[in-house]
Design goal:
This protein has about 110 residues and is of the alpha/beta class. It has five helices and four strands. Helix 5 links the parallel strand 3 and strand 4.
Length: about 110
């Protein structure tokens, strides 16, 4: 409850519906050690560079996520970095951005 409210994490039912769309993309903003420690069985775009304090590599972002109308489901290790990444993605023109919280919160996608 508290973490969900603090970070603006979407309801699982909403995320489940969004993830079933053809243009849904999982975006992982965890660091390499976290990814190695607990991998995600779904295809995802590693995008830790989104969190480089306003110094995001926009060219790389456009290559990794070319469709600004895609449904982006963002997750991290707890939900805080995903929340920040969602804000940054919206500022960069992505419209449909959702904070899924942490990797345990997306277990329903497996």
């Amino acid at each position: 409850g508290l973490r969900k409210a603090q970070f603006g994490i979407e309801d699982k039912e909403v995320l489940k519906e969004i993830s079933s769309k053809d243009n849904a993309v999982l975006v992982d903003v965890r660091n390499e050690d976290e990814i190695e420690a607990k991998c995600c069985s779904k295809d995802f775009v590693p995008a830790k560079y989104l969190l480089s304090d306003g110094d995001c590599d926009e060219d790389k972002l456009c290559r990794d996520l070319p469709d600004k109308d895609a449904n982006l489901i963002v997750f991290c290790a707890k939900g805080g970095r995903a929340s920040k990444a969602c804000i940054d993605l919206r500022k960069l023109g992505y419209r449909d951005v959702y904070n899924a919280g942490d990797i345990a919160d997306i277990d329903f996608l497996d």
